[in-house]
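**Entry details**
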Amino acid sequence: MGENLTIDSTVTCDVLVIGAGGAGLRAAAYIGEQRPGTKIIALTKVVSPQKSHTTTAQGGMAAVDPKDPVDSAIFHMFDTWKGSDCSADQNVIKKVCELGWEEMVWLERHGMHFSRTEEKRIAKRPFGGHMLNFGETKAFRACYEASRTGKGIMDTVWNESLKHGVTFIGQCVATELLFKEGTCVGAIIFRFPDGTFSAILAKATIVATGGNAKMYLVTSNCRGNTGDGLALTLHAGLPVMDLEAVQFHPTGMVGPGILASEALRGEGAILRNKDEEPFMERYAPTAKDLAPRDLISRAIITEFREGRGLFHEGHKAYHVWLDLRHLPKEVHEKKIQEVSSFFKRFVGVDPEKDLCPVTPTAHYQMGGIPTNEFGEVQKDPQTIVPGLFACGEVAAASLHGLNRLGTNSLLELITMGRVIGAKVVEHLKDAPEPEGPPSDAGHIVFDQFSTYLASQGTESFAKIRDTLRHLMMEKVGIFRTEKHLLEAIEKLKELREKAQRIPIGTTSVKANQNLWQIWELNNLITVSMVIAHGALARKESRGAHFREDYPERSAEFDYHTFVYMPEFDKITFGKRPIDMSIFEAKGEHFELFDYIERKY
Protein backbone atom coordinates (compact mmCIF):
# COMPACT_ATOMS: atom_id res chain seq x y z
CA MET A 1 0.00 0.00 0.00
CA GLY A 2 1.27 3.43 -0.92
CA GLU A 3 2.40 5.33 2.23
CA ASN A 4 1.19 8.68 0.89
CA LEU A 5 -2.25 7.53 -0.18
CA THR A 6 -4.85 8.00 2.53
CA ILE A 7 -8.56 8.53 2.98
CA ASP A 8 -8.76 12.29 3.29
CA SER A 9 -12.37 12.58 4.45
CA THR A 10 -15.41 10.53 5.39
CA VAL A 11 -18.96 11.43 4.39
CA THR A 12 -22.17 9.68 5.42
CA CYS A 13 -25.48 9.47 3.59
CA ASP A 14 -28.53 7.27 3.25
CA VAL A 15 -28.02 6.35 -0.42
CA LEU A 16 -24.92 6.48 -2.62
CA VAL A 17 -25.60 6.36 -6.37
CA ILE A 18 -22.46 5.56 -8.36
CA GLY A 19 -23.20 6.93 -11.83
CA ALA A 20 -25.60 9.77 -12.58
CA GLY A 21 -27.13 8.58 -15.85
CA GLY A 22 -30.75 7.73 -16.54
CA ALA A 23 -30.94 4.57 -14.42
CA GLY A 24 -29.22 5.96 -11.33
CA LEU A 25 -31.17 9.20 -11.36
CA ARG A 26 -34.53 7.48 -11.94
CA ALA A 27 -33.79 5.48 -8.79
CA ALA A 28 -32.78 8.65 -6.94
CA ALA A 29 -35.91 10.49 -8.08
CA TYR A 30 -38.16 7.65 -6.93
CA ILE A 31 -36.48 7.47 -3.52
CA GLY A 32 -36.83 11.24 -3.15
CA GLU A 33 -40.52 11.08 -4.06
CA GLN A 34 -41.38 8.24 -1.72
CA ARG A 35 -39.08 9.15 1.19
CA PRO A 36 -38.64 12.93 1.38
CA GLY A 37 -35.56 14.00 3.28
CA THR A 38 -33.47 11.00 2.30
CA LYS A 39 -29.84 12.07 1.98
CA ILE A 40 -28.73 10.93 -1.48
CA ILE A 41 -25.29 11.47 -3.01
CA ALA A 42 -24.84 10.83 -6.73
CA LEU A 43 -21.41 10.53 -8.34
CA THR A 44 -20.66 11.35 -11.95
CA LYS A 45 -17.41 10.74 -13.77
CA VAL A 46 -18.01 13.77 -15.96
CA VAL A 47 -18.58 17.42 -15.12
CA SER A 48 -22.37 17.22 -15.03
CA PRO A 49 -25.07 14.53 -15.30
CA GLN A 50 -26.04 16.22 -18.56
CA LYS A 51 -22.83 14.76 -20.01
CA SER A 52 -23.92 11.21 -19.12
CA HIS A 53 -24.04 8.69 -21.95
CA THR A 54 -27.83 8.37 -21.61
CA THR A 55 -28.13 11.76 -23.30
CA THR A 56 -26.80 10.30 -26.57
CA ALA A 57 -29.64 7.77 -26.96
CA GLN A 58 -31.62 8.70 -30.04
CA GLY A 59 -34.42 6.42 -31.14
CA GLY A 60 -37.02 5.78 -28.45
CA MET A 61 -38.33 3.78 -25.53
CA ALA A 62 -40.53 0.74 -26.10
CA ALA A 63 -43.80 0.87 -24.15
CA VAL A 64 -47.25 -0.56 -24.80
CA ASP A 65 -50.35 1.39 -23.79
CA PRO A 66 -52.77 -1.08 -22.13
CA LYS A 67 -55.52 0.59 -24.18
CA ASP A 68 -53.71 0.09 -27.51
CA PRO A 69 -56.17 -1.55 -29.92
CA VAL A 70 -53.53 -3.59 -31.80
CA ASP A 71 -50.46 -3.94 -29.58
CA SER A 72 -50.19 -5.80 -26.28
CA ALA A 73 -47.67 -6.24 -23.48
CA ILE A 74 -47.65 -9.99 -24.16
CA PHE A 75 -46.42 -9.30 -27.71
CA HIS A 76 -43.64 -7.14 -26.27
CA MET A 77 -42.72 -9.88 -23.79
CA PHE A 78 -42.58 -12.44 -26.58
CA ASP A 79 -40.42 -10.19 -28.78
CA THR A 80 -38.01 -9.61 -25.89
CA TRP A 81 -37.80 -13.36 -25.13
CA LYS A 82 -37.31 -14.26 -28.79
CA GLY A 83 -34.90 -11.39 -29.33
CA SER A 84 -32.77 -12.57 -26.41
CA ASP A 85 -32.41 -15.93 -28.20
CA CYS A 86 -34.25 -17.51 -25.27
CA SER A 87 -31.75 -16.39 -22.65
CA ALA A 88 -33.47 -13.49 -20.82
CA ASP A 89 -35.23 -14.01 -17.49
CA GLN A 90 -38.99 -14.17 -17.90
CA ASN A 91 -39.81 -12.72 -14.48
CA VAL A 92 -37.83 -9.62 -15.42
CA ILE A 93 -39.32 -9.47 -18.92
CA LYS A 94 -42.83 -9.48 -17.45
CA LYS A 95 -42.05 -6.89 -14.78
CA VAL A 96 -40.36 -4.45 -17.17
CA CYS A 97 -42.82 -4.77 -20.07
CA GLU A 98 -45.81 -4.29 -17.79
CA LEU A 99 -44.26 -1.24 -16.10
CA GLY A 100 -43.17 0.41 -19.34
CA TRP A 101 -46.24 2.50 -20.12
CA GLU A 102 -46.60 3.67 -16.53
CA GLU A 103 -43.03 4.94 -16.59
CA MET A 104 -43.50 6.58 -19.97
CA VAL A 105 -46.49 8.47 -18.54
CA TRP A 106 -44.38 9.41 -15.50
CA LEU A 107 -41.74 10.92 -17.76
CA GLU A 108 -44.29 12.95 -19.69
CA ARG A 109 -46.03 14.23 -16.56
CA HIS A 110 -42.69 15.33 -15.18
CA GLY A 111 -41.72 17.35 -18.22
CA MET A 112 -40.52 15.16 -21.09
CA HIS A 113 -41.63 16.42 -24.50
CA PHE A 114 -42.56 13.30 -26.46
CA SER A 115 -43.16 13.75 -30.18
CA ARG A 116 -46.84 13.80 -31.13
CA THR A 117 -49.01 12.74 -34.04
CA GLU A 118 -51.35 15.16 -35.81
CA GLU A 119 -54.09 13.76 -33.54
CA LYS A 120 -51.97 14.89 -30.53
CA ARG A 121 -51.25 11.32 -29.42
CA ILE A 122 -47.76 10.23 -28.42
CA ALA A 123 -45.96 9.28 -31.63
CA LYS A 124 -44.48 5.80 -32.02
CA ARG A 125 -42.07 4.28 -34.51
CA PRO A 126 -41.07 0.67 -35.31
CA PHE A 127 -37.77 -0.83 -34.20
CA GLY A 128 -35.97 -4.06 -35.02
CA GLY A 129 -37.48 -7.23 -33.57
CA HIS A 130 -40.62 -5.50 -32.24
CA MET A 131 -43.62 -7.12 -33.91
CA LEU A 132 -47.38 -7.65 -33.55
CA ASN A 133 -49.21 -10.95 -33.10
CA PHE A 134 -46.12 -12.95 -32.10
CA GLY A 135 -44.01 -12.04 -35.12
CA GLU A 136 -46.49 -11.38 -37.92
CA THR A 137 -45.75 -7.73 -38.76
CA LYS A 138 -43.80 -4.76 -37.41
CA ALA A 139 -45.09 -2.96 -34.33
CA PHE A 140 -45.14 0.80 -33.78
CA ARG A 141 -44.05 0.64 -30.13
CA ALA A 142 -41.17 3.06 -29.57
CA CYS A 143 -42.20 6.36 -27.97
CA TYR A 144 -39.68 9.07 -28.81
CA GLU A 145 -38.65 12.68 -28.60
CA ALA A 146 -37.48 13.39 -32.17
CA SER A 147 -33.96 11.86 -32.35
CA ARG A 148 -32.89 12.87 -28.82
CA THR A 149 -34.98 10.64 -26.56
CA GLY A 150 -32.13 10.02 -24.11
CA LYS A 151 -31.61 13.76 -23.66
CA GLY A 152 -35.30 14.14 -22.83
CA ILE A 153 -35.07 11.38 -20.23
CA MET A 154 -31.96 12.91 -18.64
CA ASP A 155 -33.50 16.40 -18.50
CA THR A 156 -36.46 14.91 -16.65
CA VAL A 157 -34.74 12.65 -14.11
CA TRP A 158 -32.02 15.22 -13.41
CA ASN A 159 -34.62 17.89 -12.71
CA GLU A 160 -36.54 15.54 -10.40
CA SER A 161 -33.33 14.58 -8.58
CA LEU A 162 -32.51 18.24 -7.98
CA LYS A 163 -36.06 18.84 -6.76
CA HIS A 164 -35.57 16.15 -4.12
CA GLY A 165 -32.23 17.49 -2.93
CA VAL A 166 -29.80 14.99 -4.42
CA THR A 167 -26.18 16.09 -3.91
CA PHE A 168 -23.95 15.66 -6.96
CA ILE A 169 -20.19 15.14 -6.95
CA GLY A 170 -18.63 15.55 -10.39
CA GLN A 171 -15.33 14.51 -11.91
CA CYS A 172 -14.90 11.60 -9.53
CA VAL A 173 -14.93 7.80 -9.69
CA ALA A 174 -15.71 5.06 -7.21
CA THR A 175 -12.54 3.02 -6.81
CA GLU A 176 -13.40 0.47 -4.13
CA LEU A 177 -16.58 -0.93 -2.61
CA LEU A 178 -16.64 -1.09 1.19
CA PHE A 179 -18.03 -4.02 3.21
CA LYS A 180 -18.64 -4.88 6.83
CA GLU A 181 -19.55 -8.47 7.65
CA GLY A 182 -20.70 -9.04 4.08
CA THR A 183 -22.89 -5.93 3.89
CA CYS A 184 -21.99 -3.13 1.48
CA VAL A 185 -21.55 0.10 3.43
CA GLY A 186 -20.49 2.46 0.65
CA ALA A 187 -17.40 3.13 -1.44
CA ILE A 188 -14.12 4.98 -1.66
CA ILE A 189 -14.15 7.68 -4.30
CA PHE A 190 -11.29 9.46 -6.01
CA ARG A 191 -11.80 13.14 -6.84
CA PHE A 192 -9.75 13.83 -9.93
CA PRO A 193 -9.20 17.61 -9.80
CA ASP A 194 -7.85 17.76 -6.24
CA GLY A 195 -6.45 14.22 -6.08
CA THR A 196 -8.15 13.24 -2.84
CA PHE A 197 -9.85 10.07 -1.62
CA SER A 198 -13.10 10.08 0.34
CA ALA A 199 -14.95 7.27 2.05
CA ILE A 200 -18.68 7.68 1.44
CA LEU A 201 -20.59 5.54 3.90
CA ALA A 202 -24.15 4.69 2.93
CA LYS A 203 -27.04 2.49 4.05
CA ALA A 204 -27.62 1.58 0.38
CA THR A 205 -25.23 1.74 -2.57
CA ILE A 206 -26.48 1.69 -6.18
CA VAL A 207 -23.99 0.94 -8.98
CA ALA A 208 -25.17 2.55 -12.23
CA THR A 209 -21.95 3.29 -14.11
CA GLY A 210 -23.14 2.41 -17.63
CA GLY A 211 -21.29 0.61 -20.42
CA ASN A 212 -17.79 -0.53 -21.25
CA ALA A 213 -17.30 -0.87 -25.03
CA LYS A 214 -14.23 1.38 -25.32
CA MET A 215 -12.04 -1.74 -25.57
CA TYR A 216 -13.25 -2.05 -29.20
CA LEU A 217 -11.76 -0.17 -32.13
CA VAL A 218 -15.13 0.95 -33.52
CA THR A 219 -17.65 1.87 -30.84
CA SER A 220 -20.60 4.16 -30.28
CA ASN A 221 -19.62 4.56 -26.62
CA CYS A 222 -18.39 7.83 -25.18
CA ARG A 223 -14.85 8.24 -23.92
CA GLY A 224 -15.69 7.47 -20.30
CA ASN A 225 -17.32 4.06 -20.86
CA THR A 226 -14.39 2.02 -19.62
CA GLY A 227 -16.07 -0.70 -17.56
CA ASP A 228 -15.31 0.93 -14.19
CA GLY A 229 -18.35 -0.52 -12.39
CA LEU A 230 -17.62 -4.04 -13.62
CA ALA A 231 -13.97 -3.82 -12.57
CA LEU A 232 -15.04 -2.40 -9.20
CA THR A 233 -17.29 -5.43 -8.68
CA LEU A 234 -14.68 -7.98 -9.79
CA HIS A 235 -12.02 -6.50 -7.49
CA ALA A 236 -14.50 -6.89 -4.60
CA GLY A 237 -14.62 -10.63 -5.30
CA LEU A 238 -18.15 -10.49 -6.67
CA PRO A 239 -19.23 -12.03 -9.99
CA VAL A 240 -20.23 -10.53 -13.29
CA MET A 241 -22.64 -12.29 -15.63
CA ASP A 242 -22.85 -12.95 -19.39
CA LEU A 243 -20.11 -10.49 -20.38
CA GLU A 244 -19.56 -12.53 -23.55
CA ALA A 245 -22.80 -10.94 -24.82
CA VAL A 246 -21.52 -7.75 -26.46
CA GLN A 247 -23.92 -6.09 -28.86
CA PHE A 248 -22.63 -4.62 -32.10
CA HIS A 249 -25.05 -2.09 -33.53
CA PRO A 250 -25.17 -2.64 -37.30
CA THR A 251 -25.17 1.02 -38.33
CA GLY A 252 -22.28 2.96 -36.88
CA MET A 253 -21.05 5.89 -38.95
CA VAL A 254 -17.82 4.99 -40.69
CA GLY A 255 -14.99 6.80 -38.93
CA PRO A 256 -16.27 8.02 -35.57
CA GLY A 257 -18.48 4.96 -34.87
CA ILE A 258 -21.31 7.28 -33.79
CA LEU A 259 -24.68 5.62 -33.96
CA ALA A 260 -26.91 6.00 -36.98
CA SER A 261 -29.97 5.18 -34.92
CA GLU A 262 -32.24 2.25 -35.67
CA ALA A 263 -34.93 4.94 -35.81
CA LEU A 264 -33.68 5.65 -39.35
CA ARG A 265 -34.65 2.14 -40.45
CA GLY A 266 -37.83 2.50 -38.43
CA GLU A 267 -38.66 5.49 -40.63
CA GLY A 268 -37.91 3.45 -43.76
CA ALA A 269 -34.15 3.67 -44.40
CA ILE A 270 -32.73 0.71 -46.35
CA LEU A 271 -29.38 -1.09 -46.08
CA ARG A 272 -27.67 -1.63 -49.45
CA ASN A 273 -24.43 -3.34 -50.50
CA LYS A 274 -21.92 -2.12 -53.09
CA ASP A 275 -24.34 -3.06 -55.90
CA GLU A 276 -27.04 -1.05 -54.07
CA GLU A 277 -28.98 -4.28 -53.51
CA PRO A 278 -31.28 -4.24 -50.41
CA PHE A 279 -29.53 -7.33 -49.04
CA MET A 280 -31.43 -7.88 -45.76
CA GLU A 281 -34.21 -9.63 -47.67
CA ARG A 282 -31.83 -12.61 -47.98
CA TYR A 283 -31.10 -12.82 -44.25
CA ALA A 284 -34.45 -11.92 -42.62
CA PRO A 285 -37.24 -12.28 -45.22
CA THR A 286 -40.00 -10.99 -42.91
CA ALA A 287 -38.30 -8.37 -40.72
CA LYS A 288 -35.71 -7.30 -43.37
CA ASP A 289 -34.02 -4.05 -42.25
CA LEU A 290 -35.83 -4.23 -38.91
CA ALA A 291 -34.40 -7.59 -37.87
CA PRO A 292 -32.59 -7.69 -34.49
CA ARG A 293 -29.18 -6.08 -34.33
CA ASP A 294 -27.12 -9.24 -34.00
CA LEU A 295 -28.61 -10.69 -37.20
CA ILE A 296 -28.03 -7.51 -39.19
CA SER A 297 -24.47 -7.07 -37.91
CA ARG A 298 -23.57 -10.62 -38.97
CA ALA A 299 -25.29 -10.05 -42.32
CA ILE A 300 -23.16 -6.95 -42.95
CA ILE A 301 -19.92 -8.77 -42.08
CA THR A 302 -21.00 -11.62 -44.38
CA GLU A 303 -21.50 -9.07 -47.17
CA PHE A 304 -17.93 -7.88 -46.55
CA ARG A 305 -16.56 -11.41 -46.58
CA GLU A 306 -18.32 -12.30 -49.81
CA GLY A 307 -17.06 -9.22 -51.62
CA ARG A 308 -20.23 -7.12 -51.58
CA GLY A 309 -18.99 -4.47 -49.16
CA LEU A 310 -17.20 -1.22 -49.96
CA PHE A 311 -13.88 0.13 -48.68
CA HIS A 312 -13.72 3.69 -47.41
CA GLU A 313 -10.28 5.02 -48.30
CA GLY A 314 -10.46 7.97 -45.92
CA HIS A 315 -11.17 5.84 -42.84
CA LYS A 316 -9.58 2.58 -44.05
CA ALA A 317 -12.71 0.64 -43.18
CA TYR A 318 -15.27 -1.58 -44.91
CA HIS A 319 -18.89 -0.47 -44.99
CA VAL A 320 -22.30 -0.85 -46.62
CA TRP A 321 -24.73 1.92 -47.51
CA LEU A 322 -27.67 3.22 -45.51
CA ASP A 323 -30.11 4.81 -47.94
CA LEU A 324 -32.29 7.64 -46.61
CA ARG A 325 -32.69 9.52 -49.88
CA HIS A 326 -36.28 8.39 -50.45
CA LEU A 327 -37.56 9.53 -47.02
CA PRO A 328 -39.88 12.56 -47.06
CA LYS A 329 -38.31 15.94 -46.35
CA GLU A 330 -40.50 16.28 -43.26
CA VAL A 331 -38.91 13.12 -41.79
CA HIS A 332 -35.41 14.51 -42.37
CA GLU A 333 -36.28 17.88 -40.85
CA LYS A 334 -38.48 16.91 -37.90
CA LYS A 335 -37.85 13.28 -36.91
CA ILE A 336 -34.18 12.52 -37.63
CA GLN A 337 -32.60 15.94 -37.90
CA GLU A 338 -29.95 15.29 -35.25
CA VAL A 339 -28.77 12.03 -36.84
CA SER A 340 -28.74 13.66 -40.26
CA SER A 341 -26.58 16.47 -38.88
CA PHE A 342 -24.08 13.91 -37.55
CA PHE A 343 -23.64 12.44 -41.04
CA LYS A 344 -23.02 15.92 -42.44
CA ARG A 345 -20.63 16.92 -39.67
CA PHE A 346 -18.61 13.74 -39.14
CA VAL A 347 -18.83 11.86 -42.44
CA GLY A 348 -19.34 14.67 -44.95
CA VAL A 349 -22.48 13.33 -46.62
CA ASP A 350 -25.99 14.74 -46.89
CA PRO A 351 -28.53 11.96 -46.16
CA GLU A 352 -31.18 13.70 -48.26
CA LYS A 353 -28.99 13.40 -51.35
CA ASP A 354 -26.24 10.86 -50.65
CA LEU A 355 -25.87 7.25 -49.61
CA CYS A 356 -24.46 7.05 -46.06
CA PRO A 357 -21.56 4.68 -45.19
CA VAL A 358 -22.20 2.52 -42.09
CA THR A 359 -20.47 -0.39 -40.39
CA PRO A 360 -21.12 -2.42 -37.22
CA THR A 361 -20.01 -0.62 -34.06
CA ALA A 362 -19.58 -2.03 -30.53
CA HIS A 363 -22.55 -0.64 -28.70
CA TYR A 364 -23.99 -2.35 -25.62
CA GLN A 365 -23.15 -4.82 -22.87
CA MET A 366 -26.09 -7.19 -22.38
CA GLY A 367 -24.40 -8.81 -19.38
CA GLY A 368 -23.22 -7.07 -16.25
CA ILE A 369 -23.38 -7.21 -12.47
CA PRO A 370 -25.89 -9.99 -11.71
CA THR A 371 -28.99 -8.91 -9.82
CA ASN A 372 -32.33 -10.45 -8.96
CA GLU A 373 -35.56 -8.99 -10.37
CA PHE A 374 -35.46 -6.23 -7.73
CA GLY A 375 -31.96 -5.05 -8.61
CA GLU A 376 -30.24 -6.54 -5.55
CA VAL A 377 -26.70 -7.64 -6.42
CA GLN A 378 -26.00 -11.36 -6.15
CA LYS A 379 -22.78 -12.94 -4.88
CA ASP A 380 -24.07 -16.30 -6.11
CA PRO A 381 -27.36 -17.35 -7.73
CA GLN A 382 -29.02 -17.90 -4.33
CA THR A 383 -27.51 -15.09 -2.24
CA ILE A 384 -27.70 -11.29 -2.41
CA VAL A 385 -25.20 -8.77 -1.06
CA PRO A 386 -27.08 -6.70 1.54
CA GLY A 387 -26.99 -2.98 0.84
CA LEU A 388 -25.76 -3.29 -2.76
CA PHE A 389 -27.89 -2.68 -5.85
CA ALA A 390 -27.19 -2.24 -9.58
CA CYS A 391 -29.19 -0.95 -12.53
CA GLY A 392 -28.78 0.26 -16.11
CA GLU A 393 -26.26 -1.07 -18.59
CA VAL A 394 -23.77 -2.11 -15.92
CA ALA A 395 -26.34 -4.52 -14.44
CA ALA A 396 -27.90 -7.76 -15.67
CA ALA A 397 -31.24 -8.68 -14.13
CA SER A 398 -31.55 -10.01 -17.05
CA LEU A 399 -34.02 -8.34 -19.40
CA HIS A 400 -31.85 -8.78 -22.49
CA GLY A 401 -30.28 -12.21 -22.16
CA LEU A 402 -27.63 -12.52 -24.86
CA ASN A 403 -29.22 -10.02 -27.23
CA ARG A 404 -31.05 -6.74 -26.65
CA LEU A 405 -33.85 -5.34 -28.79
CA GLY A 406 -33.54 -1.66 -29.69
CA THR A 407 -35.40 0.73 -27.31
CA ASN A 408 -35.42 -1.89 -24.54
CA SER A 409 -32.34 -0.23 -23.01
CA LEU A 410 -34.12 3.04 -22.23
CA LEU A 411 -37.10 1.00 -21.10
CA GLU A 412 -34.90 -0.98 -18.73
CA LEU A 413 -33.07 1.95 -17.21
CA ILE A 414 -36.27 3.86 -16.45
CA THR A 415 -38.26 0.85 -15.13
CA MET A 416 -35.47 -0.89 -13.23
CA GLY A 417 -34.39 2.47 -11.82
CA ARG A 418 -37.86 2.75 -10.34
CA VAL A 419 -37.90 -0.89 -9.17
CA ILE A 420 -34.57 -0.44 -7.38
CA GLY A 421 -35.76 2.85 -5.93
CA ALA A 422 -38.71 1.01 -4.37
CA LYS A 423 -36.45 -1.75 -3.02
CA VAL A 424 -34.05 0.80 -1.51
CA VAL A 425 -36.94 2.61 0.20
CA GLU A 426 -37.92 -0.71 1.77
CA HIS A 427 -34.30 -1.48 2.69
CA LEU A 428 -33.83 1.88 4.42
CA LYS A 429 -36.57 1.12 6.97
CA ASP A 430 -34.29 -1.27 8.86
CA ALA A 431 -30.80 -0.33 7.66
CA PRO A 432 -28.43 0.69 10.49
CA GLU A 433 -26.53 3.95 10.46
CA PRO A 434 -23.00 3.71 8.99
CA GLU A 435 -20.46 3.60 11.83
CA GLY A 436 -17.18 4.32 10.07
CA PRO A 437 -14.98 2.87 7.33
CA PRO A 438 -13.93 -0.79 7.58
CA SER A 439 -10.45 -1.38 8.96
CA ASP A 440 -9.16 -2.49 5.54
CA ALA A 441 -10.71 0.41 3.60
CA GLY A 442 -8.43 1.43 0.74
CA HIS A 443 -6.41 -1.76 0.45
CA ILE A 444 -7.54 -2.35 -3.14
CA VAL A 445 -7.33 1.13 -4.62
CA PHE A 446 -4.18 2.16 -2.80
CA ASP A 447 -2.36 -0.95 -4.04
CA GLN A 448 -3.52 -0.17 -7.58
CA PHE A 449 -2.58 3.50 -7.52
CA SER A 450 0.75 2.84 -5.79
CA THR A 451 1.70 0.49 -8.63
CA TYR A 452 0.78 3.07 -11.25
CA LEU A 453 2.56 5.92 -9.46
CA ALA A 454 5.74 3.85 -8.98
CA SER A 455 5.99 2.84 -12.63
CA GLN A 456 9.10 4.09 -14.38
CA GLY A 457 8.84 1.77 -17.37
CA THR A 458 9.00 2.59 -21.07
CA GLU A 459 5.69 1.18 -22.34
CA SER A 460 3.40 3.44 -24.39
CA PHE A 461 -0.13 4.04 -23.09
CA ALA A 462 -1.41 4.84 -26.59
CA LYS A 463 0.19 1.74 -28.12
CA ILE A 464 -1.29 -0.56 -25.46
CA ARG A 465 -4.72 1.05 -25.82
CA ASP A 466 -4.69 0.77 -29.60
CA THR A 467 -3.42 -2.82 -29.51
CA LEU A 468 -6.26 -3.70 -27.13
CA ARG A 469 -8.87 -2.14 -29.42
CA HIS A 470 -7.63 -3.95 -32.52
CA LEU A 471 -7.27 -7.22 -30.61
CA MET A 472 -10.83 -7.18 -29.27
CA MET A 473 -12.30 -6.13 -32.60
CA GLU A 474 -10.49 -8.85 -34.55
CA LYS A 475 -10.56 -11.80 -32.13
CA VAL A 476 -13.44 -11.15 -29.70
CA GLY A 477 -15.79 -9.36 -32.05
CA ILE A 478 -18.88 -10.29 -34.04
CA PHE A 479 -17.54 -13.70 -35.15
CA ARG A 480 -15.50 -15.79 -32.70
CA THR A 481 -13.52 -19.05 -32.71
CA GLU A 482 -11.64 -20.98 -30.06
CA LYS A 483 -8.32 -20.29 -31.78
CA HIS A 484 -8.85 -16.53 -31.82
CA LEU A 485 -10.19 -16.41 -28.26
CA LEU A 486 -7.17 -18.32 -26.92
CA GLU A 487 -4.88 -15.95 -28.80
CA ALA A 488 -6.76 -12.98 -27.34
CA ILE A 489 -6.43 -14.29 -23.78
CA GLU A 490 -2.65 -14.73 -24.14
CA LYS A 491 -2.29 -11.26 -25.64
CA LEU A 492 -4.40 -9.73 -22.86
CA LYS A 493 -2.01 -11.21 -20.29
CA GLU A 494 0.83 -9.52 -22.12
CA LEU A 495 -1.02 -6.20 -22.30
CA ARG A 496 -1.78 -6.38 -18.60
CA GLU A 497 1.93 -6.76 -17.83
CA LYS A 498 2.80 -3.87 -20.11
CA ALA A 499 0.11 -1.66 -18.58
CA GLN A 500 1.94 -1.95 -15.24
CA ARG A 501 5.02 -0.41 -16.85
CA ILE A 502 3.58 2.78 -18.33
CA PRO A 503 5.63 5.77 -17.13
CA ILE A 504 3.45 8.00 -14.95
CA GLY A 505 5.32 11.24 -15.66
CA THR A 506 4.45 12.91 -12.37
CA THR A 507 3.80 11.22 -9.03
CA SER A 508 1.35 13.89 -7.90
CA VAL A 509 -2.21 12.56 -7.72
CA LYS A 510 -3.74 16.01 -8.21
CA ALA A 511 -5.31 16.43 -11.67
CA ASN A 512 -3.04 13.66 -12.94
CA GLN A 513 -4.48 12.75 -16.34
CA ASN A 514 -1.97 9.94 -16.82
CA LEU A 515 -3.02 8.29 -13.57
CA TRP A 516 -6.72 8.53 -14.49
CA GLN A 517 -6.13 7.06 -17.97
CA ILE A 518 -3.93 4.20 -16.71
CA TRP A 519 -6.63 3.26 -14.19
CA GLU A 520 -9.24 3.25 -16.98
CA LEU A 521 -6.99 1.21 -19.28
CA ASN A 522 -6.51 -1.43 -16.59
CA ASN A 523 -10.28 -1.58 -16.12
CA LEU A 524 -10.73 -2.16 -19.85
CA ILE A 525 -8.13 -4.93 -19.92
CA THR A 526 -9.75 -6.54 -16.86
CA VAL A 527 -13.22 -6.54 -18.41
CA SER A 528 -11.82 -7.69 -21.78
CA MET A 529 -10.28 -10.74 -20.12
CA VAL A 530 -13.65 -11.73 -18.66
CA ILE A 531 -15.39 -11.20 -22.02
CA ALA A 532 -12.83 -13.44 -23.74
CA HIS A 533 -13.02 -16.19 -21.10
CA GLY A 534 -16.82 -16.12 -21.12
CA ALA A 535 -16.86 -16.37 -24.90
CA LEU A 536 -14.41 -19.27 -24.82
CA ALA A 537 -16.49 -21.17 -22.25
CA ARG A 538 -19.80 -20.74 -24.10
CA LYS A 539 -19.37 -23.28 -26.91
CA GLU A 540 -22.49 -22.37 -28.83
CA SER A 541 -23.95 -19.44 -30.78
CA ARG A 542 -26.72 -17.50 -29.07
CA GLY A 543 -27.81 -13.92 -29.64
CA ALA A 544 -24.87 -11.57 -30.05
CA HIS A 545 -22.38 -14.29 -29.08
CA PHE A 546 -21.54 -16.15 -32.29
CA ARG A 547 -18.99 -18.97 -32.42
CA GLU A 548 -18.15 -20.01 -35.97
CA ASP A 549 -16.84 -23.32 -34.61
CA TYR A 550 -20.14 -23.87 -32.75
CA PRO A 551 -22.69 -22.11 -34.99
CA GLU A 552 -25.88 -23.51 -33.40
CA ARG A 553 -27.62 -22.78 -30.11
CA SER A 554 -27.18 -25.65 -27.65
CA ALA A 555 -29.49 -26.67 -24.79
CA GLU A 556 -26.32 -27.50 -22.84
CA PHE A 557 -25.85 -23.75 -22.33
CA ASP A 558 -29.36 -22.82 -21.22
CA TYR A 559 -27.99 -20.78 -18.32
CA HIS A 560 -26.35 -17.48 -17.43
CA THR A 561 -22.56 -17.46 -17.04
CA PHE A 562 -21.22 -16.19 -13.71
CA VAL A 563 -17.53 -15.23 -13.77
CA TYR A 564 -15.40 -14.42 -10.73
CA MET A 565 -11.96 -12.85 -11.19
CA PRO A 566 -10.72 -11.30 -7.91
CA GLU A 567 -7.18 -11.44 -9.34
CA PHE A 568 -6.32 -10.96 -12.99
CA ASP A 569 -6.78 -14.16 -15.03
CA LYS A 570 -7.72 -16.14 -11.90
CA ILE A 571 -11.09 -17.24 -13.29
CA THR A 572 -13.82 -19.34 -11.75
CA PHE A 573 -17.25 -19.92 -13.27
CA GLY A 574 -20.74 -20.34 -11.93
CA LYS A 575 -24.17 -20.86 -13.47
CA ARG A 576 -27.53 -19.17 -12.91
CA PRO A 577 -30.66 -20.81 -14.33
CA ILE A 578 -32.67 -18.85 -16.88
CA ASP A 579 -36.01 -17.90 -15.31
CA MET A 580 -38.85 -19.60 -17.23
CA SER A 581 -41.74 -18.40 -15.05
CA ILE A 582 -44.03 -17.29 -17.90
CA PHE A 583 -43.66 -20.68 -19.55
CA GLU A 584 -44.01 -22.55 -16.26
CA ALA A 585 -47.20 -20.67 -15.31
CA LYS A 586 -48.93 -22.40 -18.25
CA GLY A 587 -51.06 -19.34 -19.00
CA GLU A 588 -52.33 -18.21 -22.40
CA HIS A 589 -49.65 -18.51 -25.12
CA PHE A 590 -47.23 -20.08 -22.62
CA GLU A 591 -45.86 -22.43 -25.29
CA LEU A 592 -44.32 -19.44 -27.10
CA PHE A 593 -42.06 -18.86 -24.10
CA ASP A 594 -40.34 -22.23 -24.41
CA TYR A 595 -36.93 -22.52 -26.10
CA ILE A 596 -38.31 -21.61 -29.52
CA GLU A 597 -36.64 -21.32 -32.92
CA ARG A 598 -35.52 -17.80 -33.72
CA LYS A 599 -36.46 -16.71 -37.22
CA TYR A 600 -37.29 -13.31 -38.70
